[in-house]
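Risk register update: the risk of archive-format incompatibility is retired. Evidence:
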Amino acid sequence: MSFAATMLVALVLDAAIGWPDRLYQRIGHPVVWIGNLISLCERRWNAGPRHRRIALGALTVLLVTGLPMTLATLIALALPGGWAGIFLSGLLAWPFVAVRSLHDHVAAVARPLGGGDLDGARQAVAMIVGRDVTQLDTGGVARAGIESLAENASDGVIAPLFWGVLLGLPGIVGYKAINTMDSMIGHRNDRYEAFGKPAARLDDVVNWIPARITAALFALGTPRRLKEALKVVRRDAAAHRSPNAGWPEGAMAGTLGVRLSGPRVYATHRVEEPWLNAGAPDPAARDMRRALRAYMRGMALAGVLLLALAAL
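Archived output:
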């Protein structure tokens, strides 16, 4: 299971140092490079009747996924064998895991919220969610931050590791290409609904198993709340607007004993979403800190699981 060892190296590297600003300033980031390719395709091809947009959206998926995966395959084949190859492959996989940056972005919301600085917390949470933050009270800010933490634990950490364990460096690169497309063009609005539909549907497929693994990690990471977490997931996850996000969010809601999701306001419209763990109170600032600890326990369990797989 050298792929598991490779993903463990990537996870440890990112947890320890993240992606340094100095490195970003010097070479950028591979996900940004993928995003530039997506933007190029969207500008050139997202026009015309609906059937044409869907077809060219599918071609974009093939191009944006195929090119990075092909390059990653060629690089992987050129790497040496043994532990040197595992370390070098893990080094290359490192930027595709976001365990530290996710923690830091949510902690940046929790700090001002815990200090009573609601405006500062709103500004920080605006960096990670798309809703109208000017309408959020303390509970709304905490919900938004915790939901982002739970959902992106799956999309930004567990799913890349999962596909990396299955397919090695090409797997983690291909997954991040798909997920980046979904985040950029997989929106249900006039501009992207048709062109981004193939990317959005594929993203749903590749995240199906990782989302459920993430929910299990959150639940197992807090054993005294295991039953509550599983109860919320079984009862509420399927009602979520996403076929996947309701699982980690539901597990986090049950783990913390708070309600998540529910109605939210965006710049142009209001969305009436069902609650996860309805009847529980809104989260407070302290619950954001509890969520961060639950997240770290879940990611630590993921590391233990990778270590076990690597030892097989």
